[in-house]
UniProtKB/TrEMBL annotation:
GO terms for biological process: defense response to virus. This is HD domain-containing protein. InterPro entries: HD/PDEase_dom (IPR003607), HD_domain (IPR006674), HD_phosphohydro (IPR009218), PycTM_dom (IPR043760). Its main location: membrane. Residues 251-411 form the Pycsar effector protein domain. Residues 33-130 form the HD domain.
């Protein structure tokens, strides 16, 4: 059975299980949650471009990771889900090593999560993908309803909020993709929980932490600790060299991309001028010049058209002609920040070791890095300005020269006809 067909069969099998074993109390660990985890797993797996077999392992594990809730105690749902997945794969004659990979991925989601390879990391991050999404508030509310329904106990709002805050602050995604993609929204969710907890504490609600029966400091003490940590982090940040902000990086990237695109457009325009006028010159030399002896009145118009095409080609070539620099820099240039290592023309004549040293020096100095990026954009702009200036001259020469040539041909034919 092909990978796509097997994944589709697993999805249909799991959907059937949810239909045949309805649990009204499972308002969170239901089919919708499973489908969201499958979607997240597919998104993460697509980023890492998994091979077919690895993709199959991840997707089957995502489909079955919570099916154990339908079969028994929630504390053993990973084991039950793994057993159900193995039963399904046996019926589809999936090789034993692949079955074991699926089981390991499901068991890795057991709290605290403990993945040992990329496939397990993807499934674990997909299971808790909502922690860094805008759906966190909604999913947290459903999780609370399910917990109260299953345990038969009411959980105070302040207690639930405090435990969720502890969980989010202690949670870390395993894949680099999720750490980058979900960081901003996860931090926003943590800030929302902190504001909510502070408001509930001010209202006088009792705080009771129920996770692992551990005693936790009061909210005010925790706030104080958090503030101290933030101060320490700020001091550490001040000691570390400043890195480019995301907005600044985006600005530099977009500006460089636009300059490169404009340069490519200029080269295309120059190529059009060169090709067009080369054809005109070929026609003049091969056809028209042979007839000038019989039509001397066309000599001046032909010369004007020929001169127009030649001058246009010259300026078009000048617009695309590359400039080669020395391609070398010295340590003094690096120390005084006088060279731009982002432009190949400044280092193509250097050895790899010297260039690597220069790049290391630049990356350790934010001012040097910013300065090099600014120089790179500036020089790209200067080159662009020169290109488009020459191109404008070439287009003007071609336009006016073509008009003058046509008028000259008309005048020569009408007013100076050849006498037989």
């Amino acid at each position: 059975m092909q990978t796509g067909s097997l994944i589709e069969a697993a999805g249909q099998y799991v959907k059937t299980q949810y239909q045949q074993h309805p649990h009204p109390n499972l308002v969170y660990h239901n089919l919708l949650h499973t489908q969201q985890v499958v979607q997240a797993a597919d998104q993460i797996a697509s980023h890492y471009r998994l091979q077919e077999q690895d993709l199959m392992v991840v997707m089957i594990a995502a489909w079955f990771h919570d099916t154990g809730y339908l079969m028994g105690q929630s504390k053993e749902h990973e084991e039950n889900g793994a057993a159900m997945a193995r039963e399904f794969m046996n019926s589809r004659q999936v090789p034993a090593p692949v079955q074991q990979q699926v089981v390991d991925c499901i068991m890795a989601t057991k709290m605290p999560q403990s993945p040992h390879n990329l496939l397990q990391e993807i499934v674990c991050d997909a299971d808790l993908f909502h922690l860094g999404s805008k759906h966190y508030k909604e999913r947290s509310k459903l999780m609370r309803q399910e917990t109260e329904a299953v345990t038969g106990q009411h959980i105070p709002g302040v207690t639930w909020t405090a435990n969720n805050l502890l969980f989010l602050e202690g949670h870390q995604y395993f894949t680099d993709y999720c750490r980058v993609l979900n960081k901003q929204q996860k931090d926003e969710n943590i800030r929302w929980l902190r504001r909510k907890l502070e408001k509930k504490s001010e209202d006088g609600e009792p705080l009771q932490i129920i996770h692992n029966n551990e005693a936790v400091a009061t909210h005010k003490e925790k706030d104080k600790k958090e503030k101290d940590k933030e101060k320490d982090k700020e001091q550490e940040k001040e000691k570390k060299p400043k890195k480019p902000d995301r907005g600044i990086e985006t600005m530099f990237r977009m500006t460089s991309t636009n300059h490169i695109r404009l340069s490519s457009m200029a080269d295309s325009k120059a190529h059009i001028m060169i090709s067009t006028n080369s054809i005109i010159i070929s026609i003049l030399l091969s056809v028209l010049l042979r007839k000038l002896e019989d039509n001397p009145n066309l000599i001046i118009p032909s010369f004007i058209l020929l001169a127009t095409s030649v001058v246009t080609i010259i300026y078009s070539v000048l617009a695309t002609r590359p400039n080669i620099t020395q391609g070398r820099f010295t340590r003094e240039d690096i120390e005084k920040k006088k060279t731009n290592l982002l432009f190949f023309g400044n280092f193509h004549g250097m050895g790899l070791e010297e260039y690597s040293w220069g790049m290391q020096q630049m990356m350790q100095d934010a001012d040097f890095l910013y300065g090099s990026m600014i120089q790179d954009i500036y020089h790209l702009g200067v080159v662009l300005g020169q290109k488009y200036r020459l191109l404008r001259i070439a287009y003007n020469i071609f336009m006016f020269g073509l008009i003058i040539s046509v008028m000259a041909f008309i005048i020569a034919v009408i007013f100076f006809p050849v006498k037989e």
